[in-house]
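step 4 of 6: structure.
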Amino acid sequence: MPPGTKIFDFSWLAGHLGQVWERIVQHLELTVIPLLLGILISLVLAVWAVRQPRVYGPITGLTGLLYTIPSLAAFALLRPILGLSLLTAIVPLTTYTLLILFRSFAAGFTSVPAEILEAAEGMGYTRRQRLLRVELPLAVPLIIAGIRLASVTTIGLATIAAVLGDSFGGLGQLITEGIQFVFPTKYLLGAALSILLAFAADFLFVRIEHVVTPWAHAKAGVR
Amino acid sequence: MGDIVAFFLDPAHWSDSTGIPARLLEHLVISGTSILLAALIAFPIGLYIGHTNRGSGIAINVANIGRAVPSYGMMVILLPICLLILAPGLGLDPTFTLTFLPIFLAMTFLAIPPLLVSTYAGLRSVDRDLIEAGRGMGLTERQILARIELPIASPIIVGGFRTATLQVIATATIGAILGGGGLGRFIFDGLNQGLVGRASIYAGAIMVAALAIGIDLVLAWVQRRLTPRALRAPRRQGVSGPTSVLGGADSLPSTIEPAA
């Protein structure tokens, strides 16, 4: 750090609120799009795995393998293939959500006691009705716990996507620029906002879980 | 493919301070030391909370908050703190401070939640009747902890250790962005080197993944060995293989019962 540099320059922040806001919005895009795609894919995979238990192992294996690819490498390797487009960030961010989401969804669906399923069957529910009216609502706490962890993970990983360049932006871009130009205000702001955003998402899903599962309050906490 | 094989066969990549052995050692040192420090912090706290069931709410909240902190953001925040406060205070070399300390501390922070939660949850999973029986036999609290609770909880504790280790080995990679060492350097340095760079990125990714999976397999073996004989389940598919790569086997069922 050059001598005389302020650790945090509030006047810079005051003059660049628009730019900072834009980075936050970009970061939300980088988080929400992969999360929605991941939820959609994992839901399909989990329903499949519940109906065909033998596919559970291979799906966990494949999503686990995708999870072991270092994020930095995934972004770097997709760049020459997909170009410097939003897709280059979205694809790996989506695949990283799959292991967490698939596991929690599948665990949620199988957490429904057999007696309840039999009762539903006895009441004449079809498979689809049983899935939508019995299994899905009862799986909600585990499903939300999975989405919560996946959202927080995605917010963190999205900061790394910025290493690739300006086109996806997000809070990681503030960090990259701050470090490049040795301007602590910028990188501290990017880092602090990414942490705050993760906390906010975590809190949001805790609240959602609380609201939609009034029967499970006493059991809220770590999986 | 040929590029990647050539990368590994190039003798230049096996020597000096930027070669594979040196980078691997850096990766192991930063992962090992941070997990060690995290264990020194999380293990005693987890044992106390698990044994006494006092302060469990605080522990769970701390773990949840810790799990939400993005590691890259953490490293960046720690950068000026290390440089301006820790380095002058402890008389550390500035280069070391920049390239090691923030990454090391962020990795320690990353490893604490899974270690703390698994130690606490492992101890709480022990059947209360067993502990009462131990007390009835005249065991001291320390003996109950050492002879009843720890052996029964050990598979869950090692499960948390596996999760922490995997996360740290994988995440230490991003330390390279901030100039840290380790296998992440092959990826980050390859970013702007064109075709040669791509081989370096692939090689780096393969080495990080192989290291994570390899160490996880070793820990899976340790986990099995530490499980008291009477508690050992018949070997199930997917528990010890790369499918458990998230280390989630301890928290979520690894097999699925047929739904109907």
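step 5 of 6: annotate
 - The mean pLDDT of chain B is 84.
 - The first helix of chain B runs from residue 2 to 9.
step 6 of 6: archive
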